[in-house]
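Q&A log
Question type: sequence-to-structure
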Amino acid sequence: MKNKGYFISFEGIDGSGKSTQIQKLAEFLGALDFDIVITREPGGSVGGEEIRNLLLQGNVDRWSAETEILLFTAARRDHLERIILPALKEGKIVICDRFTDSTRMYQGMRGANLRNLVDSLNEKVINFDPDLTIIIDIHPEISLKRAKSRKTVEERFEDFGVDLQMKMRKGFIELAKEFGDRIEVVDGQQSVDKLAQDIGSLVKAKIS
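Response status: OK
Response body:
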């Protein structure tokens, strides 16, 4: 395992607790003597972070869904080339805050045939999936309150409101059924420590 690398993505609606659980999982796996790389999307690479600023700041109508899909795909390709694939080649565990599944949800569900566009670009440009995707499931009203309390400049998607978050939550659950071979759903409404224990046990079993 330590010579092969392993790619884990975390998904969920805004404020679901991904950042906290990613850090706790990294500490858990680090204590088991694995080499860990924590990264995020959009972002991760220098170019990806520049595109992140374009996507996550500004008014909700700054970009069309189609333009967002193109920007996310460009950022993801650079991230994959410069960060993810080299780390996996070195046998490291890469833990990523969001990947293609988020684009399938946040952009792919906002218009007719946009999911097909996401999947088509993913097949042609990315053609790479995580070994394991963990979806943290939580009630949208709770998660949105958490997300807005952070008061950062990166609140463009939170500003779409609770209706979008509810739609995304349902979409993530359906996505877990579609990609049942790699996606696991965990209960995000339990305590932080209990959730971390559940995720640690799940990941340890997967990579053993």
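Response note: The two ends are 8 Å apart (CA to CA).
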